[in-house]
């Protein structure tokens, strides 16, 4: 790559967050280059479940979670796993996670997520008005299933908070569940149905179509790996792994789970880690799936996508370098077969993705202190697709020195530094 000292904005990372940030920056009249090391939608944005999970405002670190989590860790292929080789490195993240589960942090996190989701709903409406993207967003409705009266009752306070935040849904019983999704095992007596439930029919295709629409609107997509960033008088300088240099007035770091290294190159420590998730995409003929199904007591989802039926979820802490353990994807398929007895489990394609996760499960949307023309947009964990358009709006507001639509105080990169 040759030097391009004229760049206006460089967005590093061509996942859904980087592409949405680019979308709003282009709309604001900026000349945008997306710098992606591999290909558009090369990371978590390629294989996620495609759910626009707007009602998911209840933070995962909740009071009492530290008593529940050890139980989830018991089975080697259960909903939560820590790879032994990674356990020591995870300790600081877990410490912050535990702190985030205090009542005060939980309540604060819930308010922040509710504000983010309100913006997410509004901004996705604008995305739906773009004819190049509209067809990717479909309304299938969401069925949240619970194994027992006890687990349904335990989830009730969370649903009450979602209702307070303005989300609409209703409780359904056995016969309604069977109508909403024929072929489910009869054990499910309690569920919540959200008729408005939206999803993206093809997460990778959506991100690529978005990138293509940006190209049509004048953005440039460049392949190259950012290795470090440093401040300059006029903006920031990006040093690439191939030795070349790129200068820009504004730089956006949107490298998902890989963003930490670039923040570190500016001397800014961020406790970002990755919650690895697994899935299998089965042929569309594997099951007559009508809508997205959340199996809440087992931490996995089944979604009908253009590519087929995607069965996935769970969380594995193992960093960015350890090899995938696809037994986890198989374990989820086995569970799915138990709950959808007619599911054909042959012929699937397995995938592992790196959720970019902060300990309080809130993203980082902020301005670097070391280099004020560098903006951070990463750490969206389980909700990056859902919050991508909202993040794009907020990044464009930060870049334009406007008042952000959401108070960003709790999304600061240094919120764990004890300032
Ligand atoms: C199994 C699973 C299911 C999920 N389901 C959902 C869901 O249903 N709904 C939802 O809202 N969210 C879901 N998520 C979360 C969502 O996928 C992520 O939060 C989101 O994709 C993160 O987007 P991103 O752009 O930040 O990161 P990524 O998509 O990982 O993109 C980062 C990009 O940066 C590039 N990059 C990295 N380092 C550099 C560098 N140094 N220089 C240049 N480029 C670089 C990478 O190649 C990559 O393309 C799921 C995640 C997983 C793993």
UniProtKB/TrEMBL annotation:
Which Gene3D superfamilies does this entry report, sorted A to Z? Answer: D-Amino Acid Oxidase, subunit A, domain 2 (3.30.9.10), FAD/NAD(P)-binding domain (3.50.50.60)
Keyword Oxidoreductase among UniProt keywords: yes
This enzyme's EC code(s): 1.4.99.6
Q: Name one Pfam family in it.
A: DAO
**For this protein, what is any one GO molecular function term?**
oxidoreductase activity
Q: Give GO cellular component annotations, separated by semicolons.
A: cytoplasm
Looking up PROSITE patterns in the UniProt record yields: PROKAR_LIPOPROTEIN (PS51257)
InterPro entries on file: FAD-dep_OxRdtase, FAD/NAD-bd_sf
Every FAD dependent oxidoreductase domain range? 8-398
| Keywords carried by this UniProt record | Oxidoreductase
What the entry lists under PANTHER family is as follows: GLYCINE OXIDASE, SARCOSINE DEHYDROGENASE-RELATED
Please identify the protein, giving its name as recorded: D-amino acid dehydrogenase small subunit
Q: Which organism is it from?
A: Martelella mediterranea DSM 17316
